[in-house]
Specification:
Largest sheet: none
Order of helices and strands: HHH
Strand content: under 5%
Oligomer: single chain
């Protein structure tokens, strides 16, 4: 019985770690800026567009990483209904 209790405790800790990872990534996603507006300089229209395109590309890469972490955490918790949301381009009916 002691072995089973230790296993259950380990499973609880792993679930807590995954839940915390999901919550942490969701907070980071919610706080991600998608427009950079420095208060110490001005831009021409073309400079603004170019600067924002670079900034948004970088942010999109970071958001994709965070999104994958969230999806893996949710799927690891048995939430298979999230597959089309997490990976819409790779979803197929054969996913378990």
């Amino acid at each position: 019985m002691q072995g089973l209790a230790r296993l259950e405790e380990l499973v609880r800790k792993v679930v807590d770690l995954v839940d915390n990872r999901v919550e942490s990534n969701l907070r980071a996603i919610a706080n991600t800026m998608i427009v950079e507006l420095p208060s110490d300089r001005s831009f021409t229209y073309d400079e603004f567009v170019t600067t924002q395109a670079r900034f948004q590309k970088k942010q999109a890469e970071q958001l994709a990483i965070r999104n994958e972490e969230v999806c893996l955490g949710l799927l690891g918790r048995g939430r298979k209904s999230w597959v089309p949301v997490c990976w819409p381009n790779t979803y197929s009916k054969s996913v378990p």
